[in-house]
Amino acid sequence: MFGRHHHHHRGRWGHGDEHHGRHPFGFHGDHRGGPRGRGGRMGRFFDHGDLRFVVLKLIAEKPSHGYELIKAIETAAGGAYSPSPGVVYPTLTLLEELGYVTASDAGGGKKLYTITAEGEAFLASNDAPVRSLFERMAEAAQASAAFSPQILRARENVKTALRLKLHGQLTPEQIAAVAKVLDDAAQAIEAI
What is the distance between the alpha carbons of residues 173 and 192, in angstroms, rounded to a whole number? Predict the structure, then answer.
């Protein structure tokens, strides 16, 4: 379902360009079909031009600084995507040049971006794609819980500790203690 599909065509200069099948949340699949994993990689989360819709919608909801927008996008995507300043700030400049936002000096070298009437009209005329982008980010947030770096790290810590502990001879008391810790952890996770 999330596997990679190759379509070749001749580019402008005769070189073959590759387009890969995309995970519904914007990830490229790895060779086993999953959205991530060893050998997998994050693809582009947004198509060309999509980020301006997201940034503009967030500014419409609350005038913001660039850093606040980066964090808001990361939060909306559940950590599955965090745009770099090198992507967000040029997008803000473009939105300002188009007349969709204004920037005011907020002190400390920060600019506060606010939507204009033209920006609100642009958002309104693109309501369906904007809603679709935020739905995709919400789906990515939900899916990313399974790939949470904190959970993966903790799981690997438990696996490593078990492997090291089980490598030697355990007494019946130690076996019972390890089993109890694991059972308690499972119950605690289920209770969350």
Answer: 29
* Longest Cα–Cα distance in the chain: 73
Tokens, residue 47: 């198509």
> Is the Cβ–Cβ distance between 134 and 57 less than 8 Å?
yes
- Kindly report, residue by residue over 18-35, the tens digit of the pLDDT: 333 333 333 333 332 333
The runs of H, that is alpha helices, within 11-114 are: 50-61, 66-76, 85-97
For the full predicted model, state whether its pTM sits above 0.85: no
Residue 21: alpha-carbon gap to chain centroid: 18
* Distance, CA of 71 to CA of 2 (rounded, Å): 28
β-pair partners for 177: none
Cβ neighbours for 57, distance < 8 A, ≥ 6 positions apart: 123, 130, 134
Q: Report CA 155 to chain centroid distance, whole Å.
A: 21
* Rama region for 130: left / alpha / beta (φ>0; ψ in -120 to 50; rest): alpha
| 16-51 b/e (C-beta count within 10 Å ≥ 16 → b) | eeeeeebbebbbbbbeeebbbeeebeebebbeeebb
Q: What is the pLDDT of residues 130-141, one digit of tens each?
A: 998 888 888 877
Instruction: Give dist(CA 120, CA 56) in Å, integer.
Output: 9
What's the rounded Cα separation, in Å, for the pair 76 and 87? 17
